[in-house]
Write the structure tokens for this entry.
Amino acid sequence: MKDLSSLSEIRVLGKTYTIKRFDFDKLVQHSELLGSVSHSKQEIQLHNNDVCSENQEETLLHEILHIISRELKLEFNEDTINRLSIGIFSVLKDNELIK
Ligand SMILES: [Zn+2]
């Protein structure tokens, strides 16, 4: 069982992505976003350091799905990624596959 909220990097499809966490209010220009991915920098940015860790973990999964969608050319839209991340996260959590 892994605690996603303490990860500093994660491997996705053979590439290592750095995970950076920011306080929500320090990113005024992205204040509506809970997370984002820089594909060129291989970096996942979580903008919600001040929200509960469960919310952060789901955001991390959401950003991972953006990477998978791009790398595998699935072309998922935001709504599909939202629904998938909620579904997969609930299975991981309810079966205690993640903390
Ligand atoms: Zn998104």
Summary: Helices lie at 53-71, 78-94.
